Recover the amino acids of this structure.
């Protein structure tokens, strides 16, 4: 009985040992292989932007919630900044005054105009007086000195009239210049006043509401994140070492953290040229081939980018490739170095060093 039991144990040991060896074996074979590289990322709405405050103050109106659809130019929040309002009112009043000063009825122009009328009358009177003294001088009724004094008086009157007319023109120019200055100052103040109103830059959907009613905000604070809800894309963070392999149009297989059992197909549409310091990676945009069955942003994702495909390639399982591109042959447990090609999630192409049908094993830990 003991002998029969011992035989059974030996047979079972040999059976499981053989199975174990078989499980550690892999044959070099030929098959189609697709090279893929991994990238992480998140979902983002097309044309997504941060709507920011352009002035300081308390939020006294909030006309939106997360999920609200807004249109371009729509006022979605209001900031209470009285200084901007007061400045706009003051600038508007100063522009009105400056504008009135350009009219012919303006007090300054009216005063000069009255002086011009008086000076014109004085010139006419002096001209008449000169004609009279001219006749008297011809008849020796007045002296040369008296005649010259009347002539000098006319010259002074004419000079005074000319100066007043120039003063009138200069006053018009000055009034017009001041009107232009105040007009643009009023426009600037109106712009600043309008910054109290937070308006949507583009039509879209509010995905994130960053502030609440009554919050004090400063210029530059993000109030909301808005994007185009009709187009959601994958924003991928790609390591710089594989950037040279990426091209527009390459297929991307994506799994979302919300449902890792489903795979979505997308294509690389844009490769941003600048290195992103925040994520310490390059940014690649991949747009889905079909519209997503969910309309959310911000969810994390895993992506595999298909770099290239090779038909009938000589391959081994990736798990059997050791550090330094070494593999272990089963026949003599000898470690050899191979030259590799493209790599997929499960397989690695062997360019040289192995042949079809050879058996390799995993290195013992």
């Amino acid at each position: 009985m003991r002998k029969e039991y011992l035989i059974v144990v030996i047979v079972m040991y040999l059976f499981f040992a053989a199975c174990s060896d078989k499980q550690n074996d892999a044959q070099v074979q030929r098959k189609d292989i697709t090279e893929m590289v991994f990238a992480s990322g998140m979902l983002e709405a097309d044309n997504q932007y941060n709507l920011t405050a352009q002035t300081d103050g308390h939020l006294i109106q909030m006309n939106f919630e997360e999920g609200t659809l807004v249109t371009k130019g729509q006022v979605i929040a209001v900031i209470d900044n009285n200084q901007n309002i007061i400045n706009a009112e003051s600038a508007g009043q100063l522009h009105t005054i400056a504008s009135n000063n350009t009219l012919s009825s303006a007090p300054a122009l009216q005063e000069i105009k009255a002086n011009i009328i008086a000076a014109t009358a004085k010139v006419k009177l002096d001209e008449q007086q000169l004609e009279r003294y001219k006749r008297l001088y011809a008849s020796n009724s007045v002296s040369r000195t008296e005649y010259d004094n009347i002539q000098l008086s006319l010259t002074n009157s004419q000079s005074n009239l000319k100066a007043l007319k120039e003063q009138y023109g200069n006053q018009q120019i000055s009034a017009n210049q001041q009107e232009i200055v105040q007009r643009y100052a009023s426009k600037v103040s109106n712009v600043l006043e309008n910054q109290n109103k937070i308006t949507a830059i583009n039509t879209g959907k509010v995905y994130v509401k960053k502030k609440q009613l009554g919050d004090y905000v400063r210029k530059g604070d993000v109030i909301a994140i808005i994007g185009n809800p009709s187009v959601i894309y994958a924003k991928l963070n790609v390591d710089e070492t594989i950037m040279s392999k990426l091209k527009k149009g390459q297929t991307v297989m994506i799994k979302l953290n919300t449902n890792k059992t489903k795979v979505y197909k997308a294509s690389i549409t844009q490769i941003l040229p600048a290195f992103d310091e925040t994520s310490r990676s390059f940014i690649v945009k991949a747009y889905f081939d079909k519209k997503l069955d969910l309309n959310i942003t911000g969810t994390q994702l895993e992506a595999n980018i298909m770099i290239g495909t090779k038909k009938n390639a000589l391959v081994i399982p990736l798990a059997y490739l050791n550090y330094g591109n070494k593999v272990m042959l089963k026949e003599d447990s000898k470690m050899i170095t191979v030259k590799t090609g493209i790599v997929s999630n499960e397989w690695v192409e062997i360019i040289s060093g192995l042949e079809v049908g050879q058996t390799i094993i995993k290195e013992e830990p």
Notes: The mean pLDDT is 86. The first helix runs from residue 2 to 24. The chain is about 35% helix and 40% strand. Residues 22 and 221 are 63 Å apart (CA to CA).
